[in-house]
Amino acid sequence: MAKTGGSSIRGLVFPMGLVGIWLLLGVMGRLNNQIFPTPGEVLESFAYLCREGSLWSHLSISLFRVFAGFALAALVGVPIGILMGCVPQSQVWFGPTLHFLRQIPPTALIPLFLLWFGIGEAPKLAVIFYAALFPIVVNGALGVQQIAWDYWEVSRVFCLSPWKTLRTLVIPGSWGSVFTGLRLGMGMSWRAIVAAEMLASTSGLGYLVMTSRSLARVDEMFVGILMIGCTGILIDVAFITLQNHLIPMWRLAKRGRRSEKDAKCASRTSPSF
To answer: Cα(37)–Cα(217) distance, rounded to whole angstroms?
Structure first.
């Protein structure tokens, strides 16, 4: 814990140094306020947007879009990834198509999604879905493929049904990789929705940045950019914390169920006197 805390403190040295230089240049009057506001001006704009309520409105809209699109991508991507990992031949059929689609950035498809789905929430959700789907699918498939072959042999020896193999071998064995894919997918979703809001939206943090640019409000633009970065970090930290808690809990639960089964078997086979 102390080592982790020390690493976190060292990681803050560089950004705090940049903020200090920024503050010093602002105090010395070396900044052109029309293109680079001082920290005080950014704080004033932040306070103004908070009092007005527009900042929290844009933030909540962006978060809703991200979580909605990401949930759809997770519901579709996790089963597809696990299926592709369990059926190696599916890589031959679908692998080239997935690799081709992965090379196309989500922002390149925004005009097409607008043409297909019209102006509204649907094209934004489609962008998020597209951005998050491929990391989830690829990591899910890799997680299943990384399960040791010995475990597959044991499942065949015990003649486990497909459902029991999935529940006792595939999901626990690939859970870490699947969660990594979910984390990467969430990061891709956040970046994609900000880009989509900049190009085709009337609300959200991306829209806030673009309208601030149009109105030459560089201080509000900085507020939007900093809010995007801070929110992305908080989402990533939340995913890491959730992963660190869920995986040990999963393993402990599996061990607990296994111990109960062993105890029942021992009580049945022990001789009675």
So the answer is: 9
Domain-located, residue 136 = yes
**pLDDT in tens for each of the 273 residues of the chain?**
445 555 667 777 888 888 888 888 878 877 777 778 888 888 988 999 998 888 999 999 999 999 999 999 999 999 999 888 888 787 788 888 888 888 888 888 888 888 888 888 888 899 999 999 999 999 998 888 888 888 888 788 887 777 888 888 888 888 888 888 999 999 999 988 888 888 777 888 888 888 888 888 888 899 999 999 999 999 998 888 887 877 655 554 455 454 444 444 434 433 332
For 103, list phi and psi in degrees, rounded to 5.
-80, -15
Q: Which domain holds residue 192?
A: 44-255
Residue 30 maps to a domain:
no
DSSP at 272: P
Q: What is the CATH number of the domain that holds 108?
A: 1.10.3720.10
Residue 38 lies in a domain: no
**Assigned domain for 3 exists:** no
Contact between 192 and 92 under an 8 Å Cβ cutoff? The reply is no
